[in-house]
Amino acid sequence: MTTTEAPLLRVRNLRKHYTSPKRWLQPAKPAIQAVDGVSFSVARGETLSLVGESGCGKTTTAKSVMRLVEPTSGSVELEGQELLSLSPEDMRQRRRDLQIIFQDPYASLNPRLTAGDIVAEPMRNFGNFGGSAAAERRERVQWLFSRVGLRPEAAKKYPHEFSGGQRQRLGIARALALNPKLIVCDEPVSALDVSVQAQVVNLLMDLQAEFGIAYLFVAHDLAVVRHISHRVAVMYLGHIVEIADRDTLFSKPLHPYTEILLSAVPVPNPRTPARRLLLQGDPPSPANPPSGCRFHTRCPMAQAVCKEKVPELSERASSSQGGHWVACHFR
Ligand code: SF4
Which of 164, 185, 281, 289 has its CA 20 to 30 A from that of 2? Predict the structure, then answer.
C-alpha cells in the first residue's frame, strides 16, 4: 500500500443534503447537510477509517460512496471510473468490486434463506463468477465458510441458528463472494460482544493481508480503529477536520476536536494519569450549521476569525502515507 500509485477510490467534494418536500403555506425547511464537501482517497489494500460522534456524516459518506444513498453532488471514482454518472445497470455491475458489511448482522441477512444460499446469492445474481454451475458455487461457498471460520456444514442452517459473531462472519463471507476490491465496513463490530469484536477485526485484517482488499471502515470505537486502520479521517458535522496515518493521528492529533475525541479513549495503564477533555454542549443541527468553522461553538480555542472564515483542510506535514491534513486556523 503506497500513495504514489493511483488510489483505488478517490472521493472529491462529496455532498449529501436531505431536503424535505415543501408543504402548502409553510416555509421551506432548510436542507440537512449530512455530508458537505468531503474529499479523501483509499489506496489498494489500505484501511481508511471514518470516525466522529453520532450524526457527523460518516455512515452517510460510506453509503454515498456505494450509491446506497444518492449523493447530491461531488465525485466518486473507483479505479479512475466515475461512479456517480453510471446508469443503474452499470452501477450494479460495478458493485462486484464494491461490497458492504452492515452494522447489524441479523437485520442484513434474509431469514428465509439458508446461510449457504445467502453467501451464494451474489454469485447467482452476477451469474458468471467461477462459472454458473451450482456445483462450482457450492464449492466456493464451502471455501468461503471455512475461510471466515465457519464450519462448511453450517451452510444448511438459517440465520437465527447462528450467534451474533457467526452472523457477522456470514456477512463477511457474502461480501467476499465476488472478490471485491473495496469493502465498506459500516460499524461491523459495534453490535457484537466485546469478546467477539477482536475475532472479527482480526479476521478482517487477515483477509486484507491475503486478498489485498481495501476497507472504508466506519466506526466510533477508537480502540478498534487504532487496531485496524492505516489512516484515519475525523469527521465533524459533515466535514472532514483531520486526516493522518494512524500512528500520527493517535500520537500527535492537531485538530482540537480530534484531541477531545482521543482523550476519551481509556488508558490501559492505571499509573498513567488520564487527561480527559470534555466536549462542551450538544452538536449543532446539520440543518443550520454554524458559520465559519463548524466546530467554533464547542471549541476551547475558538477566536473571532473562527466564526467568520471556514478553515480549509490543508496539509501540515507530508508522509509516505498521504500526509497530515487539518482544517483549523490555528493548528
Ligand atoms: Fe477551533 Fe477555530 Fe480551529 Fe475551528 S478553526 S477548530 S474553532 S480554533
Answer: 185
